[in-house]
Design brief:
Radius of gyration: 17 Å
Order of helices and strands: HEEEHEEHEEEEEHE
Organism: Mucilaginibacter pankratovii
Helix content: 10-25%
Oligomer: single chain
Shape: globular
Number of helices: 4
Keywords: Hydrolase, Protease, Thiol protease
Structural class: alpha+beta
Protein name: C40 family peptidase
Domain NlpC/P60: 60-191
Largest sheet: 6 strands, antiparallel
InterPro entries: NLP_P60_dom, Papain-like_cys_pep_sf, Peptidase_C40
Strand order of the largest sheet: 6-11-7-8-9-10
Length: 193
């Protein structure tokens, strides 16, 4: 009885937060926390015993489906802290929105992707892999930016991301140029092979 009452209070409190397009967090009757988004109910990524997300479950979604959808968002402006395409995205907001579109739970911050275990060498990167960078100060070796790899055989490696950069503000495709190589932290594979 007390658990049911507590569940009801938490559900009402969680559903009262945020605007109509912002995710809210809900505790289910089984005690699991899920994210309620315009795309539906998405379970939060599972953390390990240290509290880090080390794996993302992509289900039946393919890397091609993911990047095809991501490209439809090209030109959405940059907005810090946002996952709403009507207002804009920050870098991790863009990643969150793209993955959540397919019902895939991911960390909300770029730093939250740091502990994913399936690191791959940049030269072996494939479409759909995530590329992690430092913030704009490359001397601080903490993940602060990210994008989704677009790899086409015989062509320069590119990635799609939401950037606050002066040249391309918002969701855009960028080559892996010397500026980003200097900020490069690692590449992680989230899709099973």
């Amino acid at each position: 009885m007390i658990r049911t009452l507590l569940y009801g209070i938490l559900l009402i409190a969680a559903m009262g937060c945020g605007g109509p397009d912002e995710p809210t967090y809900v505790i289910t009757s089984a005690g699991d926390t899920v994210k309620k988004t315009p795309e539906g109910i998405i379970p939060l990524p599972t953390a390990d015993s240290a509290g880090y997300t080390t794996r993302i479950v992509t289900g039946q979604t393919t890397p091609l489906e993911l990047v095809t959808f991501a490209k439809t968002l090209t030109g959405v402006p940059y907005k810090y802290g946002s996952i709403d395409p009507a207002e804009g995205f920050d870098c991790s907001g863009f990643i969150t929105y793209v993955f959540n579109h397919f019902g895939i739970a991911v960390p909300r911050t770029s730093e939250g992707f740091t502990y994913l275990h399936r690191e791959v060498n940049l030269k072996d990167a494939k479409t759909g892999d995530l590329v992690l960078f430092t913030g704009t100060d490359s001397t601080v070796r903490v993940v602060g930016h990210m994008g989704i790899i677009l790899a086409t055989p015989g062509q320069e490696l590119r990635f799609i991301h939401s950037t606050s950069g002066h040249d391309n503000l918002g969701v855009t495709e960028t080559p892996m140029n010397s500026y980003y190589v200097g900020r490069y932290v690692k590449t992680v594979r989230v899709f099973e092979e």
